[in-house]
């Protein structure tokens, strides 16, 4: 319900205003002084404050500034007995929504309160959306407990607060843009634009105009000026995905941007200033590309001040189950299906697969399974043919050095439980551990 607080030392006026405003659907609270008002504000989620300028224990104009500092989403309308222009100007400067003169502006009170409420509601919605955005791109949304992914997250958190250029390396589908977004939203530039461009997805000529923009008449079809991505990302972050695919002449121009903070639009001869943070990503070995003459060494050292390697999914088998359940809940919610479990056999098949497409491939597989599922469990028969028929082996078809010890222990416990048909006491005896130890490991590994 819409809430309003009336602050005035005249009880009769408070009661009159309360009745009038109450008819408009507001829940009305009253206070006769600043101290009581602060208590009411702390106890209730007030949308609009109607405050007298002269109060027994303070000045309403100064009190407005205090309230806005403590409750920035609440809107304040000041009541004054006299049309005092200096006070009115000061009130607006301290954050008041508006001011009205008692007696003279009675017809303005109700419409003004509604407008103030609309602004307060809009501010709350904006804050809610900003919070959702921050949560969506926060480091907390990077799923995994393996040492390699935790180390990558730790490095990203440390570099986020600087303006240092970052180079993210790793196979396709390892989540490089997810990391780039997280770094941006944890930085001091989070309220500015994050602009992403895939350097391999756009032709050379078009990529240059996308980067730098162009002036009208620069080429056929350029009928008016157009800003480039560097202008869009000014004071923010630009993410250059697959930077290893960038043509040599564009590498030279990008290097100039990094070194001077300037660039020239196509068809112009005047440099334009820009302040952007660069986060680049590649699945190529840039050192090898330098040796081949495909990538400039000076640009490499500029963009790789801080490198973070993102591990392939086959290097973090312990995270596959966590990721699978994350994607299950995501797609089950979207499709409004009540699917809560993934069968042990299905998890086993997922952990045996090579995942050349990494996390992106796993996401696609789970989306497919959710679409096909009729019951409340994802089973192995819903998996793509090539995953269903993965050859099982002690090493899951991978070199042993890619498998961490916890994954091996987890798989061994699961197989022993299958052998004992779920009898945990018998399983503990076969494993040579106490039953309490087995239960602790089952909980740690999320084995159902």
Strand order of the largest sheet: 2-1-3-6-7
Overall tally of domains: 3
Question: For the CA atoms, what is the radius of gyration?
Answer: 31 Å
Q: What percent of residues are in strands? A: 5-15%
Helix vs. strand class: alpha/beta
Quote the average pLDDT.
Answer: 87
CATH topology assignment of the largest domain: Rossmann fold
**CATH level 1 name of the largest domain:** Alpha Beta
Give the % helix.
40-55%
What CATH architecture of the largest domain would you give?
Answer: 3-Layer(aba) Sandwich
How many beta-strand segments? Answer: 16
Uncertain ranges: 393-402
Taken from the alpha-carbon principal axes, the silhouette is flat
Major sheet size, sense and barrel closure: 5 strands, parallel
Query: What distance separates the N and C termini?
Result: 45 Å
CATH superfamily of the largest domain: P-loop containing nucleotide triphosphate hydrolases
Total helix count? Answer: 19
Q: What are the defining features of this structure?
A:
Helicase, Ruva Protein, domain 3, 5-stranded parallel sheet, 3 domains, Rossmann fold, 19 helices, flat, 448 residues, alpha/beta
Descriptive notes:
With 448 residues, the chain is of the alpha/beta class. The chain has 3 domains: 2-133, Rossmann fold, CATH 3.40.50.2300; 139-311, P-loop containing nucleotide triphosphate hydrolases (Rossmann fold, 3-Layer(aba) Sandwich); 315-444, Helicase, Ruva Protein, domain 3 (Orthogonal Bundle). Helix content is 48%, strand content 15%. The chain has a 5-stranded parallel beta sheet, sandwiched between helices. Strands 9-10-13-8-14 form a 5-stranded parallel beta sheet. Strand 1, helix 1 (11-22) and strand 2 form a beta-alpha-beta unit. The two termini are 45 Å apart. Mean pLDDT is 87; it is low at 393-402.
């Amino acid at each position: 319900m819409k809430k309003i607080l009336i602050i005035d030392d005249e009880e009769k006026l408070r009661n009159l205003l309360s009745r009038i405003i109450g008819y408009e659907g507001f829940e009305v609270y009253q206070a006769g002084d600043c101290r009581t008002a602060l208590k009411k504000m702390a106890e209730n989620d007030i949308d609009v404050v109607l405050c007298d300028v002269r109060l027994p224990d303070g000045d309403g104009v100064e009190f407005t500034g205090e309230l806005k500092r403590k409750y920035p989403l609440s809107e304040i309308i000041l009541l004054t007995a006299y049309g005092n222009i200096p006070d009115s100007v000061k009130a607006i400067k301290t954050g008041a929504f508006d001011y009205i003169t008692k007696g003279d502006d009675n017809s303005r009170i109700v419409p003004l309160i509604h407008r103030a409420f609309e602004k307060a509601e809009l501010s709350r919605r904006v804050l809610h959306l900003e919070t959702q955005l921050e949560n969506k791109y926060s480091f907390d949304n990077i799923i995994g407990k393996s040492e390699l992914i935790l180390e990558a997250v730790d490095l990203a958190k440390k570099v986020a607060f600087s303006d240092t250029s970052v180079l993210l390396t790793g196979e396709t589908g390892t989540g490089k843009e997810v990391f780039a977004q997280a770094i941006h939203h944890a930085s001091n530039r989070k309220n500015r634009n994050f602009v992403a461009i895939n350097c391999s997805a756009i032709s050379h000529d078009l990529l240059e105009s996308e980067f730098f923009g162009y002036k009208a008449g620069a080429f056929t079809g350029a009928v008016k000026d157009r800003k480039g991505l560097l202008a869009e990302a000014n004071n923010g972050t630009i993410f250059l995905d697959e930077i290893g695919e960038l043509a040599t002449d564009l590498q030279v121009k990008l290097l100039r941007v990094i070194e001077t903070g300037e660039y020239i639009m196509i068809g112009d001869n005047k440099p334009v200033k820009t302040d952007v943070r660069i986060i680049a990503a590649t699945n190529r070995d840039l050192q090898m590309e330098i040796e081949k003459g495909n990538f400039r060494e000076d640009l490499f050292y500029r963009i790789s001040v801080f490198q973070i390697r993102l591990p392939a999914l086959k290097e973090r088998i312990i995270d596959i189950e966590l990721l699978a359940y994350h994607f299950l809940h995501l797609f089950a919610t979207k499709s409004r299906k009540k699917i809560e479990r993934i069968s042990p056999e299905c998890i086993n098949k997922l952990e045996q697969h090579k995942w050349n497409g990494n996390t992106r491939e796993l996401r696609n597989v789970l989306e497919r399974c959710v679409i096909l599922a009729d019951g409340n469990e994802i089973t192995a028969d819903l998996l793509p043919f090539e995953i269903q028929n993965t050859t099982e082996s002690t090493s899951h078809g991978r070199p042993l050095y890619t498998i961490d010890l916890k994954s091996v222990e987890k798989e061994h416990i699961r197989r022993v439980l299958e052998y004992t048909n779920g009898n945990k006491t018998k399983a503990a005896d076969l494993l040579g551990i106490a039953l309490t130890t087995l239960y602790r490991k089952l909980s740690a590994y999320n084995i159902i």
